[in-house]
Amino acid sequence: MSSMTDIVFLLLIFFMLTSPAITPEALDLILPKAKGKTSNVQSLAVSINKDLEIFINADRVSGDQLELELQRRLAGEEDPTIILRAEESVPIQNAVTVMDIAKRNKYKVVLAVKP
After folding, report:
1. For the domain that residue 77 is a member of, what is the CATH number?
2. CA distances from 8 to 16, 21, 27 (A)
3. Which of 56, 76, 86, 88 is most solvent-facing, going by the fewest CB within 10 Å?
4. Is 50 domain-assigned?
C-alpha cells in the first residue's frame, strides 16, 4: 500500500511542476467575453493591454516595429497564425491595426476571448 501512496505523491508533484508551463504567456489581460468554439493552435500571441502597450508573446514591441517583428518571427511558418489578445478597454482601432498587418502579410488572425 505504501508504494501506491508513493506513486500518487510523485504524480501530484509532477503535475504541480508542469502546470505553470501550460499557461499562455504571463500577461494579465481582461479579455472580452464570447460564446463559440475555441482553438488550441497558437503560433504567436499579440497582446494589447489597457495602457495600449503591444506585446508579442511576452516581449514588448513598439507600434512602428510590430509588422517587421511579426514578419521576422513568422518567416518560414507553414500556416502563420496570430492570436490577438486585446483587453476590453482597448479602442477597436488598435485591434484593427494588428488585423490589417495580418491581412497584408496573409496571416490568419484569431481573436482571443474569455469563454
Report:
1. 3.30.420.270
2. 12, 21, 33
3. 76
4. yes
Please give the residue range of the domain that contains residue 93: 26-111
| Cα 19 to Cα 16: distance, rounded to the nearest angstrom | 6
Instruction: Choose among 81, 76, 89, 79: nearest CA to 31.
Output: 89
Q: Report pLDDT digits (tens) over 38-72.
A: 555 547 899 999 999 999 988 999 989 999 999 99
What average pLDDT does range 11-25 have in this prediction? 72
Q: Mean of the per-residue pLDDT values for the chain?
A: 82
- For residue 68, being part of any structural domain is answered with yes
Q: Kindly give, in sequence order, each residue whose CB lies less than 8 Å from that of residue 67, ignoring residues fewer than 6 positions away.
A: 101, 104, 105
Question: How many structural domains is the chain composed of?
Answer: 1
Contact 111, 84 (CB under 8 A): yes
